[in-house]
Write a structure and sequence with these properties.
7 strands; globular; binds NADP nicotinamide-adenine-dinucleotide phosphate; about 35% helix; single chain; Rossmann fold; alpha/beta; 7-stranded parallel beta sheet
Length: about 240
Amino acid sequence: MSTTNSGSRSEPPSLGRSVLLIGASRGLGLALAREWARAGWQVVATVRGSGRTGLHELADTYAGQVEIETVDITEPEQIAALNGRLAHRMFDLLFVNAGVADQPDDTVAQTPTEEFVRVMVTNALSPLRVIEALQDLVEPAGTIAVMSSGQGSVANNESGGHEVYRGSKAALNTFMRSYAARHSGEPRPLVLMAPGWVRTDLGGPDALLGIDESIPNVVRTLDALRSSPGLHYVDYLGRTVPW
Ligand SMILES: NC(=O)c1ccc[n+]([C@@H]2O[C@H](COP(=O)([O-])OP(=O)(O)OC[C@H]3O[C@@H](n4cnc5c(N)ncnc54)[C@H](OP(=O)(O)O)[C@@H]3O)[C@@H](O)[C@H]2O)c1
């Protein structure tokens, strides 16, 4: 895919690569969009709703290189419409970042059913719907990645807490393993990314990492896995996370 830069900054030369990034209005998604834009990638990134976001500012800065699309991943007809609008495009990377958290101290049994459904549908069901719908927009040997969490690790869950959120990311991991099993032998790297505990609206102010400590490493790790087919559950530094 060809790349056009705004030309207003000194940037690394364009790598001519492209990403479709789902959920980039703020937080880690916005930082990913910025990181790939700086590296000269063509970035198609999504928001939901019609309000102005940080992504709109980024798209103004990188006019023509960062394009904004819209999708609420919990609305299948919006996913289908996005697929229709992008049907003529191909991407080197599909990254599904969108996710939500709930009250961290509620046990699963205390969680209102509606809230349980919201978190599970957003974090576990919807990313797989996005991947199934948009996979044909990804180059045959391109990467499909989704933002998981270290909290999705069943093996590492010795401290408890964040029960529903943990469950949603563990479910996401399991669904990706099923997806990977159905696609075994294909050249695509599939990545479940644990970005670390990062200071965002979701991560909160006490998180260990700043966005700049996580996201450049996430991008480097994805790049390092570019030629590694099959499923990888890794953290931002490229370390394998136990299932
Ligand atoms: N921060 C951390 O410590 C941490 C750690 C591990 C994993 N993660 C994961 O990293 C991802 C991003 O987290 P963050 O910390 O950047 O959170 P954040 O600041 O709350 O941002 C969440 C992003 O997801 C989007 N989103 C939520 N629901 C959506 C939906 N139904 N459809 C489309 N977009 C939706 C939001 O869009 P709106 O602006 O429209 O709400 C926003 O762009 C999540 O999957 C999260 O679980 C974060």
